[in-house]
Specification:
297 residues; alpha+beta; Aminopeptidase; 2 domains; eleven-stranded mixed sheet; 11 strands; disordered C terminus
C-alpha cells in the first residue's frame, strides 16, 4: 500500500493498462493526479503481488468514497480487508465484482461489526459501433466554455445528488478541470444549454463518458442521447480505442439509452455500504467501556 501515486503506477501501471475498460476509474483518477502532480488528502493505493508473480490486482481509496477494487481473487479481497482493519483504515464501503465484494465485506464485517448493505449495482458498457439517434432533437452540440462554469457546477451538483454521491464535493473545481482539457460538451437548443455530457482525460487509449445530465424540466426530448452521441463521436475521431461508461442498473432509462447508441455490456459491479455498529467503529483488539472485546465473530 502507498499514498504515492507515482510509486503505485510504477508497480501496478502495466496491470491496469492491460484492461483499460475494466480499470477505467483507477486509470482516469490516477491520470488526473499525475497531470496535477498531487494526490487527494489521505488517498491510498495498493496492489496484490504474490512472491515472484506479476501484479494480480489493485485498489484505490479516497476518503468518503467506497474502496474501489480491480478484478481480484476472493482470497486476496478478504486478505485486503484484514490488512486495512489492522492499519485502522476506515472505508464506508466497497466497489467491486460481486464475489470479491462479498468476500471483502464478510471479512470486514467479521473484524469491525459493521452492517453491510447493497448501495448500488452498476454495469460497465463499452462502445461498439456508434449508432446515431434515430431523430436528432433541436439544437446542436458545442464544447463548454468558461462562461458556462457556474451553470455546469450547479448541474454537476444536481447530478451528484440524484445518484447519491457524497455531499460537499467541489463541483466548480471539477468543472474547471474538465474545461481545461475540453472534457465537457453542452447540447444547446434555441441558444440555451439544455443538457451536458462530460468525459474523462484519455489514458491507455480509453476514455470514460460521464456525467451526463439533463435538468428535469427539459427531459424527454432526446437531449441527453444527442449530447452523449456527440461526445462519443468526438472520442472516436481522436482515435481512442475504447469509449466506456457506467450505468446504475436501477435506472432502466439510461441503460436503454446507451444501448441504443451502440454501447454493449462488459461487466457488472456492486457497491456495498458499511454502517458502523451503534457504539461506533470497533476493530480487533479494541475495547470499548461496557462492551465485549471486538474480536472475531
Amino acid at each position: 500500500m502507498t499514498a504515492d501515486t507515482r510509486r503505485f503506477l510504477n508497480a501496478a501501471g502495466e496491470f491496469l493498462r492491460a484492461d483499460p475498460a475494466g480499470n477505467t476509474v483507477i486509470l482516469t483518477v490516477t491520470e488526473d493526479l499525475r497531470v496535477k502532480a498531487a494526490a487527494p488528502a489521505r488517498a491510498l493505493f495498493g496492489w496484490w503481488q504474490p512472491d515472484g508473480e506479476p501484479v494480480g490486482a489493485a485498489f484505490m481509496h479516497t476518503p468518503d468514497y467506497p474502496l474501489l477494487l480491480s478484478r481480484v481473487s476472493v482470497p486476496a479481497a478478504a486478505r485486503l480487508a484484514g490488512d486495512l482493519t489492522e492499519a485502522r483504515r476506515r472505508v464506508p464501503g466497497v466497489n467491486a465484482g460481486q464475489d470479491a465484494a462479498d468476500a471483502f465485506a464478510a471479512a470486514w464485517r467479521e473484524r469491525t461489526g459493521d452492517t453491510v448493505a447493497v448501495y448500488r449495482r452498476m454495469r460497465l458498457f463499452r462502445l461498439g459501433e456508434l449508432i446515431p439517434p434515430g431523430r436528432w432533437p433541436d439544437g446542436a452540440a458545442r464544447l463548454a466554455a468558461r462562461t458556462d462554469r457556474d451553470l455546469l457546477a450547479r448541474w454537476f451538483g444536481a447530478f451528484a445528488r440524484e445518484v447519491g454521491d457524497p455531499p460537499g464535493q467541489d463541483h466548480r473545481g471539477a468543472v474547471a478541470e474538465r474545461l481545461g482539457y475540453g472534457g465537457i460538451t453542452v447540447w444547446e437548443a434555441g441558444g440555451v444549454p439544455v443538457s451536458v455530457a462530460s468525459r474523462t482525460r484519455a489514458v491507455a487509449g480509453m476514455v470514460r463518458v460521464g456525467p451526463v445530465y439533463t435538468p428535469p424540466d427539459v427531459r424527454g426530448h432526446g437531449y441527453a442521447s444527442a449530447a452523449t452521441a456527440a461526445v462519443s463521436q468526438a472520442a472516436l475521431e481522436e482515435g481512442l480505442r475504447e469509449v466506456v461508461l457506467y450505468t446504475d442498473l436501477a435506472n432502466p432509462t439510461s441503460n436503454a439509452l446507451y444501448q441504443r447508441l451502440g454501447y454493449r455490456p462488459v461487466e457488472d459491479r456492486v457497491v456495498l455500504s458499511f454502517t458502523p455498529a451503534r457504539h461506533g467503529l470497533r476493530f480487533i483488539g479494541e475495547r470499548t467501556p461496557g462492551l465485549c472485546p471486538a474480536g472475531r465473530r
